[in-house]
Amino acid sequence: MARGLQGIIRFRRYQVDEARRALGILLGHAVELERRAAALEREIRDEQQAAAANPREAGFIYGPYAAQAIRRRSHLARASAEVESNISRAQDEVRQEFRSLKVFEIAQENRDIKELKEEERVQQAILDEVGLQIRRRREGP
Questions:
Q1: What's the sign of the alpha-carbon dihedral 129, 132, 137, 141?
Q2: Which of 36, 89, 94, 140 could disulfide-link to 19, CB 3.0 to 4.6 Å?
Q3: Is the dihedral of CA 16, 21, 27, 30 positive or negative?
Q4: Taking a C-beta distance cutoff of 8 angstroms, is the pair 100, 12 a contact?
């Protein structure tokens, strides 16, 4: 029976690892989105400085750029919110899988303790019997 639990425990560990991997991928996406948002903000700041330095040409060029930058910023914000939502769900999944794993690990630990106690009881019974036989031999017939 313990062998059956070992298989389940191995499967549950695999499930926990898979959930952690999925969470790691999502966290990587979140970091990438943050990097892209920071790069966009630097780009916007640089374009604003360039527009301030040459206002005559900037009037024709900066307007469409600003509209596009606003759309990109909005898209990044939506993507970031979606990834954060997915991260929250993935964290819940990791916690749930880990709890499930712990249930089986604790059950296996309890079985191991029970088997060890039974083994100790049998060993003690054998030692008791040996002690009784020695006592009987010493006392004689």
A1: negative
A2: 94
A3: negative
A4: yes
Six-digit token pair at 49? 């400085």
In this predicted model, what pLDDT tens digit does every residue of 80-94 receive, in sequence order? Answer: 999 999 999 999 999
Q: How confident is the model at residue 119 (pLDDT cuts 50, 70, 90)?
A: very high
- In 10 A of CB 140, how many CB atoms? 5
- Of 10, 20, 38, nearest in space to 94 by CA: 20
The enclosing H or E element of 1 equals none
Q: What is the pLDDT of residues 29-47, one digit of tens each?
A: 999 999 999 999 999 999 8
Single out the residue of 47, 105, 53 nearest to residue 72, CA to CA.
47
More confident site: 101 or 2: 101
Q: Are 77 and 41 in contact (CB under 8 A)?
A: no
pTM over 0.90: no
Residue range 67-83: average pLDDT?
A: 96
Q: Which residues contact 7 (CB under 8 A, 6 or more apart)?
A: none
